[in-house]
Amino acid sequence: MSDFDAIARRQRGYIDLAQLASADLSRGQVARLVGKGHFHRPHAGVFRTGSAPPTWVDKVQAALLAAGGDARAMGRAAARLYGLDGADGSAVVEITVSVLRGPVPHGVIVHRTRQTDPSLTSSLNGMAISSINQTLLEYAWKVKAMPMVERAVEDAIDRGRTSEGALLRFVASRGKGVPGVTHLRSVLLNRPDGRAAHSVFEVIVYDIIREYGLRQPVRRLLVPVPPDQKFELDLAYENELVAVEPMGRKWHRTASQVRNDALRRAALESIGWSVVPVFWPEAVTTPWLTAARIGATLRSARI
After folding, report:
1. What single DSSP character describes residue 242?
2. Cα 298 to Cα 235, 269, 287, 291, distances in angstroms
């Protein structure tokens, strides 16, 4: 294997002109490889080996090489690379670099910054990427839609990539005026008590509760059920003994799952809890009905 092949393999098949020179390839040799179709040039000074069409991740790698310097994937691209909930639909290639003047790769959103704090950069599968907390801040800046940012935050916390406390400290350290700070702080301060959400649907139902002016529930409350069980309630009003259970298809569609749901509900009702099941079609098409059912159950529980 040639020296440049070894470099390219570490970079998803991409290599830049400086790296080719370090592997003792002249500009003339590079031009001949391009002419013969052995190399493809997606950006000035960046080359792709092989013939397979590039994936979205490959395009991010190429953009980082083309921008040079300390370029890193950021915002929507970084969120997708981390696999954060809701970010997988973004096809944006978005990077940041501290060089104030430099190449702007075709089809790439380049943000330039004066900040050179190394703690804001991490590495993922060999690529430079914003740290998880910085990614969430950038994502809040670029996406802005509260439910989308909430989904990403809850997923990052649930998977142990960060914590609410770490995020709040990070936001506080950024100071006023930094893009995304106000929005991300709002998301964090409006999180319900309890543990991080387990699913997209849970975040959606919580957003309905908030939008229609209902009191915030506790998330993922553990309730002991005699003789020796503990049930985790997705969204719970402990004082009123009301559980709101988003019934997503992943965990609530097979015959055995439906049977277990019925047994669980009966067990909760036997110790005084009222269970409000919420199904996807109603929540996404007529959310006011979902809010009305939850509100009516809470009022009945107070009587």
Report:
1. E
2. 13, 15, 17, 11
- Distance separating alpha carbons of residues 149 and 155, to the nearest angstrom: 10
Per-residue pLDDT of the chain (303 residues; tens, 9 = 90+): 466 666 766 776 677 767 777 776 677 777 777 666 667 667 767 777 765 567 898 889 888 988 888 899 999 999 999 999 989 888 899 999 987 677 777 889 999 887 778 899 999 988 999 999 999 999 999 998 888 999 999 999 989 999 888 888 999 888 778 889 999 988 888 887 777 777 778 888 888 998 899 999 998 899 999 888 899 999 999 999 999 999 887 777 788 888 998 999 999 999 999 999 999 889 989 999 999 999 999 999 876
Tokens of 138: 């950038």
Cβ neighbours of residue 124 closer than 8 Å, sequence gap 6 or more:
81, 82
Measured distance CA(300)–CA(281) in Å, rounded: 25
- CA torsion angle 211 253 296 243 (round to 10): -90
Domains and CATH numbers, the chain: 3-54 (no CATH), 60-189 (no CATH), 200-302 (3.40.960.10)
CA distances from 220 to 30, 65, 75, 192, 226 (A): 58, 44, 29, 10, 19
Residues in the chain: 303
